[in-house]
Amino acid sequence: MTQAVQPRFYRQRSILAYLALLCGVLSFVPGAMVFGAVCVVLAVLLAWKELRTVARMLFGFVVFGTLAALIMEPAALLVASENMTRLSALILTVMLLSSVLGNSADLLKISGSLFSGKPLARYYSLAFGTGLLSVPLNFGSVGVVGSMIGHRIRGRGDSAMTRNAVRAVIRGFAVSPICSPLSISVVMTVTFLPGLQSWELIALSLPVGVLILLGGAWQREPEQVVVPDDGEVQAGVAPWLRFAGIIALICVGVFALSGLVGLSYSKSVTLSCFAAVVIGFSLRGARTRKLDLPTMAPVSNELIIVGGSAFIGALISLLALNLMGDDFSFPRWAYPVLAFGVPWVFYIGGTGGFNPIVIGTLVGGVLGPLWPAEAVLGLGIAMVCGWGITSGGSPYAANSLLMERLTAYPARQIGLHWNFRLSMVLLLLTGGLGAGLTYALAG
To answer: Which pLDDT does position 246 carry in this prediction?
Structure first.
């Protein structure tokens, strides 16, 4: 029998991805973050023939941004490289965590009971559960719950049930950028709008996020209540407790590292998930007497989309601050109009392949210093809502790409087709909210 031929440089790409991950974990080592960015770039170049069009486009922007920074602001390359390694390590660690949890016996038992019961109750449990898990775990929530859906698809095939489950998970995760106090979106928004307090933003964005999750059930496929077969294994209390214990430990690690040690959110999630991955593979290795690490060769698209967006975003932020004049301002009537358009800018840019990190950096870096201080809440709510809607509706969002890997549903179908009408309604409502707040607070 002829063995399947692997693409060129398959093993080298995986090694480079693991090196980038280790550089992100060992960020305290001098030069590690820059070396990690180099590894990401090399891994992407070796996989050039397998890259999506948007990934190639982003790589072109990375090259152009590097050349521009060398001429205008060479010091910006260091910050941009650190951003690339930091977020690349995050996405790689989450994928490894999904691999560890996705092969556990407890997960197979839990997935049997996860897809039973009434469709609406199941949808809400998946949506709100993913939203809660995404507070400390970020993409880890999609990896954990998505691996359950993947097991269901591989065992029983595609169905309206599994498609609705994917919808619920993607929408549940999309609420995290809107109202999670640990999300990158909230941190970046508060950073670019210094007059805005995080509690003030979350006090408004949290109810908005809950309403979005509740209203998301409007866009589902009809399905029937599942009656368990006689031979179907139902999860007891023990598998749930063990699985919940793993998630709880990861959450504790994230909160401890971010709250007590003072590490950044992305760094805290990376280290906590990495610790869980090391423990998981160690236990598996002790049981099987061999260390069987999954290959990271196929993740080049995710690396450049996430890492490249972080790189470009850092360059845009630094250059915008240097080039923006102090005497420029918009007419008073323009601010509500701009606030209404901000969520649309996120969404249009996201569906075009730009990561919300880039768009958020550009919007916050340019509009933040120009916005009326008394009306920053209007711009803040427009930014986080646009970020969240884009996370759920863009086919190039990292969570859609990760879900594609776990379930085999195309990312374009997950992010764009299944959520288009819901995204349009949410963009109108949240854009109107941002504009109304800006108009009312600016006077």
So the answer is: 77
